Structures are given as structure tokens and as C-alpha cells.
Amino acid sequence: PWSDMGRGLSLLLLPLALLAAPARAEDGTAAAAAAEVQIEVLHLPEACSPKSKKGDLLNAHYDGFLASDGSKFYCSRTQNEGHPKWFVLGVGQVIKGLDIAMMNMCPGEKRKVTIPPSLAYGQQGYAQGKIPPNATLIFEIELYAVNKGPRSVEAFNQIDKDGDKKLSELEISQYLKEEFARDGKKRHPSAHDEILADIFKKNDHDRDGFISAKEYNVYQHDEL
């Protein structure tokens, strides 16, 4: 179930690549500094909680249009059998303008947002996505769910059994066993050791044999 997403093994281990943001716009230009995302709220639920923040796992549908002629270049409802998209907010999985546009948004909310080229695909455009150079984009977004992200404080604390704010090899080994038991898939006995080694290779940056709260929490929540 998606409620287990924060603890999900695949999300703990793998870099997230649910939505690509190719041809990232150049930062630091005068145009980027002057440009802003325009947000129009089309529908706001009476009970507007929780509000999305950086690192949250969002589930949304959205349509993308070119501002120049109104033509539609993207529709999430025609992708992936019509399932809404899951992605982590504020970490560059989508274009920067969408990361900005979907902050402080609650489940059930609908927005129409206008994103300048400097916060989208810039001077290069994105030919594969039928987006010309210097294109201003309009997205109509409907947000369905706001969940704790895969590198959340809650997920860290669950693995950190002794509460010392760092994850030992034993703690992560135990976590892997629990995850393997939960999903019930048959694996080769060596898979556990290989995955454990890979976790430390990718996350233990100072090579001290522990994964600290800072090393684990790639999305830099304020709480850790």
C-alpha cells in the first residue's frame, strides 16, 4: 500500500527517477532571477491539510500547455494507464517551476500555474517533449495525496532502533529482513548482503561505518 511508501525498500535504496527533468534551465541568469511562477488556485478544499513541503511524496495529475498557442504537450492521464504521478517535491525530479508551483498545496486542491522558460526548459527547449526554445508553460494540476517522503524523519527513526541518530549495519540489516518478510518475494540468500553493502556504499559518505541522519536525509528536512 502507498501508506508504506515512506518505509519502502526500493525508495530507500534507489535514486528516484519517476519524473525526469531533462535539459535543466541555466540558473543564475538575470532572466531566472526576474522570472516568477504565477499561481492561480482553481479549487481549494474546505479542509486543506496537510500542505505539501519539500521532501513530501505527492500524487497528482497534470496537463501541460504551451502558453504561446495553448497546445497541449503533456497529459498525465494518458500515461501509465491513467494513474496519477508519484514524485518527491522539491528535489529536481520535475522542472524547477513545478517544484515551486506545488509547494503548500493540499489534497484536493487544483491550480493553474504559468512557468517562465528560465524555470522550465530554458533556451534549449525539449524537443522530445515537443517544447520549443524559450517556451512559457502552463500546467493545470490536481493534487490527490501528500505523504511523508521516503527519506522522512519517521522512516529514519523507525530504522534507528537504539535512537542514537545514526544507522548501524545491524540496524539496516534488521530493516532489510523486515522489508523482505513484508513483501514476501523469494530472493537469493546473497541478495541481503549485496543490498546492505550497496546502501553503505551510496549513503555512508564519510565511511565511518554508520549512516548519519544528515547522510540519510538527502532532502534536508528541517527536523533532522
Please outline what is shown here:
The protein has 224 residues and is of the alpha+beta class. It has helices at 9-13, 30-34, 96-101, 153-159, 169-183, 190-203, 213-216; strands spanning 38-43, 57-66, 72-75, 85-88, 110-115, 137-147, 166-167, 211-212.
Name the descriptors.
EF_hand_dom; Chitinase A, domain 3; 224 residues; disordered N terminus; 2 domains; endoplasmic reticulum; six-stranded antiparallel sheet; 20% strand; Recoverin, domain 1; two-stranded antiparallel ribbon; elongated; 25% helix; EC 5.2.1.8; single chain; 8 strands; alpha+beta
Question: What can you see in these coordinates?
Answer:
It is an enzyme of class 5 (isomerase). It holds the Pfam family EF-hand_7. InterPro entries: EF-hand-dom_pair (IPR011992), EF_Hand_1_Ca_BS (IPR018247), EF_hand_dom (IPR002048), PPIase_dom_sf (IPR046357), PPIase_FKBP (IPR052273), PPIase_FKBP_dom (IPR001179). It catalyses: [protein]-peptidylproline (omega=180) = [protein]-peptidylproline (omega=0). It contains seven helices and eight strands; from the N terminus they run ααββββαββαβααβα. The chain is an alpha+beta fold and 224 residues long. The protein folds into two domains: 38-147, Chitinase A, domain 3, CATH 3.10.50; 153-212, EF-hand (Recoverin, domain 1, Orthogonal Bundle). The strands form two sheets. Strands 1, 2, 3, 4, 5 and 6 form a six-stranded antiparallel sheet that branches. A two-stranded antiparallel ribbon has the order 7-8. A hairpin with a 5-residue loop joins strand 2 (57-66) and strand 3 (72-75). The two termini are 26 Å apart. The model is unreliable at 1-33 (pLDDT under 50).
